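Q: Predict the bound structure with FO1.
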Amino acid sequence: MYPKIIHYVLNHSTLAMITVLAGGTGSIKLIRGLASQFSDITVVSNVADNIWLYGLYICPDIDTVIYGLADILDLRQGWGIKNDSFECLRQMKMLGEQTWFKIGDKDLAMHLLRTNMLRSGKRLSYITERMRDKYAVSSRIIPVTDDPVETKVLTDRGEMHIQEFWVKHRAQPPVVNIRYEGAERARINPKVSQAIRQSKLIVIAPANPISSIGPILAIRGFKKALVAEREKIVAVSPLIGNSAISGPAVKYMEAVRLNSSPFGVAKHYSEFVTKFVISKNDGDSSRRIVRLGMEVFETDILMKTSDDENRLATYLLTQMKAA
Ligand code: FO1
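A: Predicted complex:
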């Protein structure tokens, strides 16, 4: 792996630092592709999926990125640690606890350590830095804020935390609205602001625009910071045609009355994105996106294998340097 990184540091020397705005399962593939070819990466992580459960603070998006870059992610599920066991969860169930959110025994170590550190007064960004160090991950991973932000989904059964909606209720209840509790009060992590200013390239991962990127954009001052750097921002579509590559993006987009298509995502980002990557199968929407003032790039954006991840990452690195 290291010779490859050195190779790209030399060949992509004009790209000093790449910042990726990311969620979890939809983002890690591109992050892994970029990190295998480029050494100087900062991942800005969504925190609004975080949840207090079983007395523990669980940060799914941060953990997916750490496990993905440490090469221990359960790739089949897209979250958790591969070959994990669930003995603790089984025991909790036996003791009458609700166990709809599945914490593996190895994964549990992360939540225990993080919760202990939080209880001793450490900030989430400090803890994330310690944990990525323990897992020997070289890319920086910064929670967008150290303040609490939670995505709340309003359904016909009432309002619930996004994990309750997605995992406990299996995304079944019709969605009426989505809001980001705490986003208005939350302060952007200063290191995130610095990364946005100093990066040569900012990539918006092919993540859910409402539940992964939405809470990041909702933090006071974040959009303004992006608008100032719009010339260096590229987004990769999380949709091919009218379908999400993974997860409930379409359901959430419809709930907030956003056109669920690559064009809809492009329009949603048009204030601060100048380059938009779509599937080569969506060439017919290219002209409409260009009319939003964006440069459009068409390629194969589906990432099923690590070769796909590397191919899309290489495409981005070469195209954006040339653009
Ligand atoms: N997703 C599920 O569908 N079911 C689960 O039981 C579950 C547990 C879980 C535990 C730790 C973790 O880091 C993620 C977990 N996820 C689970 C994934 C998570 O709900 C979402 O996919 C992310 O929040 C979306 O980015």
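A: The longest strand covers residues 175-181.
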